[in-house]
Amino acid sequence: GVEPRWASVVGAGPRLWIPPHPHERRRCRNADLVPLAGDRPLRGAAPASSPSSTRAALAALDPTRRREAVAGWLSEQLANLGVADVAGRSSSAFGDLGLDSLAIVELIQAAQRDLGIQLYPDELFSAPSLDGLASRLAQAIDGGRVGSEPAQEAAASARASAERLAATALVAPPFAQPARRLPGAVLLLSAPRCGSTLLRVMLAGHPRLFAPPELHLLAYPDMRAWHDALAPRMLHLGLVQALVGAGVDEAAATAKIARWRDEATPTSAVYAALMELLDGRRLVDKSPSYALDPRILERAEALFDRPRYVILSRHPAAMIESFTRLRMGRLFAASDVDPHLFAEAIWTRAYAALEAFAARVGARARWIRYEELVADPATSAAQLCEFLDLAPDPGVLTPYAGQRMVPDAGGAISFIGDPNFTRHRAIDAALGERWREVRLPWRFGQVTADLAARLGYAAAASRGTGEDLEADARLPDDLEIAASPAAAGELLLTGATGFLGGELVDVFLSRGWSVRAFVRATSRVETLEARGVEI
Fold first, then answer.
1. Which domains does the chain have, with CATH numbers?
2. pTM of the entire structure?
3. CA geometry: angle at 225 spanning 303 and 351, to 5°?
């Protein structure tokens, strides 16, 4: 019952868990043990360490030891999945291991659970070897750190590279005009990582709507092109789930899609076949990829009879943080550009296209901000129902209730849409304020800042690395600010004032205080100077 002095045995460095049995999935660490007291038993099961703590321990290692530790983790996972002689296959390609789709999903879930890394199927198959995959994972653990803004020339070059790649992220192939238009659908449009999964599941709660996971049909002329582009990333499973949700047996749905692929069936015919199964419900097509090429948006006008468009926006800082944290650049082969700049370029490209398209279709488009959706879902839901000519329904406000084509966490399609959706149990208003906590290594480009301002995100224009004062922030009305001593004096600011700093400065200036600030040479000081702060 005496706790050993572990530091004298293993040293004070970072510790990594080592499972005691090849098939044991639970982490066992000395820090998780509860000492015995007399003859009383241990209390409960050992708590699992969080991905953040394991990732932090790995990040603290030097690059060589980190890669070795990750390689050991990968070997263990593959052995648990039934791969024989993992140690002797370090130079083998991942595709040569013979793992089925369920095993691949299990490995992806293990990376999320143990390492806090979002992996993608095509990323696994593109690695030259298991050694190369381990190196890629080790690099991902160490990557994504926020650093200082580089020199102006380097920043301009990096931004240009990211924008060029974003411009070719999705280029739609030619698309034949359908013989007839289909009944008007609802298209839910946004950039990636902007909350469209939540809104999709909310709309799925209305009895007059059918809102399946991402279909991506509109981006491709026929099912062969659709399958070739999406199957390697397992994104074709969204259509399987849609057919199952419409009443088709899963095996029959899979066979139907295979036949459509073999026959290169036009995607317009697949839309028609799906709509025939909906018993009069209106289809909601939610696929963030549509906003990346304006020609895809034009296809909706050609394919559907006066469709409605729900355009969901989100603060660019929150989108960029989420996009980067989930390593979504890997879906676009964006490994050679700065991930934050690439995410910004994707946000800007998507919403610039949506802004122009919404102006063209006029009253058939309705904008909604994610921040308003989570802060006041009842009002947002009522407005959307009115826009879609639907009676309000309480099911729209309970997205986590019932069967809404949302797989269980760890399911075969849990990474289609928002991989974190099942971690919540209710609409969380705090997520709408997350942008205030984001600190990015780059300032927004002028095009991004101007577009954000037009979409109602005025604070984005000066968000940058968080050094600027937020002009739109307001203190609570009942907050009393007192200084000691009470008489007016001098206030010295060092670096960023942070959230609500601008209004605090105003309070002290109004009381006769003299305010001075130390800032970096690269900082924007216009807001401070306008308030009367001495720089």
1. 6-142 (no CATH), 186-436 (3.40.50.300), 467-535 (no CATH)
2. 0.68
3. 55
